[in-house]
Amino acid sequence: MVSGAAPAAGFAAPEARSAEKTEVGKGLPPGWRIATDNGQHLLEWRAPKPFPVSGARVEFRANGTLVGVPERQDDGRSFRLPLDRVRTADLDSLQVQAAGRRIDDPTGKSAGAGATADPAPTLPPQLPAGSVDPGKPGSYATTTAEYDLPAVKLPGLAKPVEMRGVVVAPEQASGERPFALFLHGRHSTCYVPGTEELDENWPCAEGSEPIPSHRGYLRDQKLLASQGYVTVSISANSINGQDEELEDDGAQARSSLIRHHLGRWATWATEPDSAPAALRKTPTADLSRTLLVGHSRGGEGVNRAVMDSLYPPPAAQDGYRSKARWNIRGTVKITPSVLGQNPVPDVPSLTILGGCDGDITDLQGQVYTDGTRGVSQGKAMHSSVYMVGANHNFFNSEWTPGQAKAPANDDFLTLMPPGVKDPLCSPDAPGRLTADQQHQAGSTYIAAAAQLFVDGDDRVRQLVDGSGRRAPSADPARVLTHAVGGNRSALFLPDDPQGSPKVSGARMCDAVGPDDSACISDAGGPGFSPHFANWLPQHESGRRAIALNWKEPDTAARITPAEPVKVEGAQSLALRIAVPPNTSDTRFDIHLEDAQGKRAKLGAVRLDGLPGTDRTKSVWAQEVRVPLTPAARAGLDADRIAHLELTPRSSPGKAWLMDAWSWKPGTPEVTAAPLTRVDIGHLTVKEGDSGSRTYQVPVRTTGQQAGAVRIHVIDPDSGEATAKLVEVGPGRPGITVEVEVEGNERYGPDKRHAVVAKAVRGTVVGSHTGGITIENDDPMPEIGVEPVAAEVTEGKPLKWRLSLSAEADEEILALVKVLPVSGGRPELTTADVDQEWLSQHVDEVPNPAVPLSEAFEDYYMMLEFPAGEKLADLAIPTLHGQGERATKYVRLQLTDDGDEPLGSPFEGVVRKAS
Questions:
Q1: Mind listing the pLDDT tens digit for each residue in 53-76?
Q2: In the chain, at which end, N or C, are there fewer CB atoms within 10 A of the end residue's CB?
Q3: Are 298 and 254 in contact (CB under 8 A)?
Q4: CA of 565: how far to CAs of 19, 184, 505, 518, 593, in Å?
Q5: 730: CB partners within 8 A, 6+ apart
Q6: What would the mean pLDDT of 604-632 be, rounded to a whole number?
Q7: Long-range residue pairs from 261-269, CB within 8 A, at least 24 positions apart, any chain
Q8: Single pTM value for the model
């Protein structure tokens, strides 16, 4: 038996199950309970204080497995998941996580409470200045205007979405001007002026006002406008207020909204008189030169908008169905989410990662760089910009305390235990950026992307591609960069879709997997890595790195690709290598060997770890380069390089090789390839009473190019995923996932056979998750009660036997309320029952004693019938000789999910011992 709260308190845990009956269990962590609402059982976690609306998705997990994605409640503290959507029956070790960070730890241990006295990590040295500085304002004065158009209806959203934007443009700029669109992320939608009250409802209630999140990038817009850009930042509060109901967390809706705005601007460019009056003096926007900028969930929306512009989505799920009349030259994603993990490979991107991000703490946006490798032509450059000391919110002034109209917070401090300081990321730490410093650095790198991707100024590339140059306007921020694509050719990719390399002297490891195969195990390690951010499968196939772990120098790691590779015409070998945070002087000699056995030492590289603490994700790869001229001098065949060797010269140490490339300067022209698009659909079917039927997961594939995707089919019972590489496109077998449904007449859970997909080669994936849900169509068994020992002497347990009218295929919960005893009879009190038993059922044992019904006013007792079992015992252990030596009573009532009584009340009697 376990305890549970009526809709206002904590609940106790599932227990070890007996083969015949269920006995008393032990409590779950504070803050957890089973709630009932409108006839539905809900697994609920309640935070000690309101949890900010943010870009990170809140998840319930148990023993490392995803239990489900809960819905946030209006109080901002409660998160609920219907029990029929719980993906595992094993609810031991329940945790709440967001972006890989545990957020329900009452002890503060997961936040590193013991690190108060740690010294400040050493910051990386300031890099030499580049030859250009994109953060300098341009020559144009700027003007600001706003528009507010009729709202639009988007699929999956009950309420219309606002079409509101703030425009900053250059004054007296001739000709058509390049265009930049900004989209903010997921945040609270409304606030009550003069209070700290926030909510995420839409539209705002009377007395509250919209939070102007879209006005938080005015500084960035003014910089671009001074350099000749027409800019607009658009509002997405309505999506933020509704996206919890969407399977893709709102990515498609944000894409549709972006394209609605782009469509309006395309029309205004050709029909200026149709533009709002406030915009008619704005220079004409040239949408063939468009940059999209997205922050947090806005970054994922920007990625999907690029995909949908090039490879249209299924009409039924899209809210914008007109042809794209624009050309997106590049994107900037600021501390973004990437819940779908399917970046667009053929449009250049720059992703800013905040070293002190307290929202999307796993820095999953790194996937926008890593996830493009090998998927398409590899000519679009994808850059990651790691900004030491930057948090999540301060890139938006409307999310920044002291600058925002609405209440705002420093996201890094959200889960810091009181009185604990982080030596790197607390506001007064030497490495932490102020809000103005951070915003200025962000503006500088947004402008860098604009000048490189849209204007085609190759001088800017050195600031963002791992060449080791800085933009002085971003000072004092310490910024590190690396990149893939561009004028690189892949040489050694651990997850090469054409075939993984062979490795000796090191270990091929899984980005996400069990401890024995993981690059960094959950059991401990030198830190955490953005390169290894979790996705949906508990063990993800096909995403790898090479882990080096040496005790002595000269222990060479040798990597051999499936086929010899070419370095002809390249200038350097570029490697992305991560080392543990706060380490120094990790050194490697780098050798190449051709297919004939000729060998050359290219040079040596040295790396210092990024500054980090146990609250940061600092195992991030740095780009190092060595010249290829020694290989030419040694006579190596540049068309048949067969082996790469990394030989440590420091001892001992660890490192992770992400990839290696041949590199030469320059930025190539990029044209998007005609990739095949895959969208996974969802089908709901009834279980039926008998027979067997087979259903197929709906999949939509469009395009004429052959390619491949990797699918993971997730078992609804175990949560384990089965992976398969599938060829798609003309003449290919395509994706076929069949689910066999066995009909029966037993009550059971709805079962979701989930399928997730990721692009591997020649493809893009839009709707990355879908599957088949099998709905139970049998009634729940009835529960009966029989007395076993309903009249006892004090010191003995009261007992009742509960039974089901039929076996069920899932655990059945029986709720028992304690009612006041009628007729003025004396009631069993909290002093009359075993105190340990009582403490497992209520948060606080009353002192002085009170009647048991009063103690249980906000609680109930909950019994479990494990799947396939029909019996459970309800027991109340009493104490001998407590209080008055008179006969006492307890009155109990079975209830259903909606707190309605099931049958008549039943009573227990405790008589004094003779």
A1: 887 788 888 766 778 888 888 788
A2: C
A3: yes
A4: 61, 42, 21, 27, 11
A5: 704, 706
A6: 96
A7: 261/163, 261/165, 261/181, 261/232, 261/234, 262/181, 262/287, 262/290, 262/305, 262/309, 262/324, 262/325, 262/326, 263/320, 263/322, 263/325, 264/149, 264/163, 265/179, 265/232, 265/326, 266/325, 266/326, 269/176
A8: 0.89
